[in-house]
């Protein structure tokens, strides 16, 4: 998940690519797992990270 967070932080990779690189078979499976772990959806998390940078 650390790789996925870094890719989302950079903001230039599509969610499907982030999901695949993180080992998930689909963007929706990745999004569900990310949301369970981080408490927010990947897009929301990425926006918050961008504001903090």
Quickly list its features:
about 55 residues, mainly alpha, 4 helices, about 75% helix
H/I helix tally: 4
* H/E element sequence: HHHH
Give the helix proportion (percent range). over 70%
Sequence stretches where pLDDT stays below 50 over 5 or more residues = none
β content, as a range? under 5%
What count of domains describes the coordinates?
A: 1
Average pLDDT over all residues: 95
- Rg is 10 Å
Distance between the termini: 20 Å
What is the assembly state of the chains in this entry?
Answer: single chain
CATH class: Mainly Alpha
> CATH-wise, what's the superfamily?
Homeodomain-like
- Total strands: the figure is 0
Fill in the CATH topology: Arc Repressor Mutant, subunit A
Largest sheet, described in full? none
CATH architectural type: Orthogonal Bundle
> What class do helices, strands and sheet pairing give?
mainly alpha
Rough shape? Answer: globular
Plain-language structure description:
The chain has one domain (2-52): Orthogonal Bundle (Arc Repressor Mutant, subunit A). It has 53 residues and is an all-alpha fold. Helices cover 74% and strands 0% of the residues. The protein is globular, with a radius of gyration of 10 Å. The mean pLDDT is 95. The longest helix has 12 residues, at 27-38. It contains 4 helices and no strands. Helix 1 runs antiparallel to helix 2.
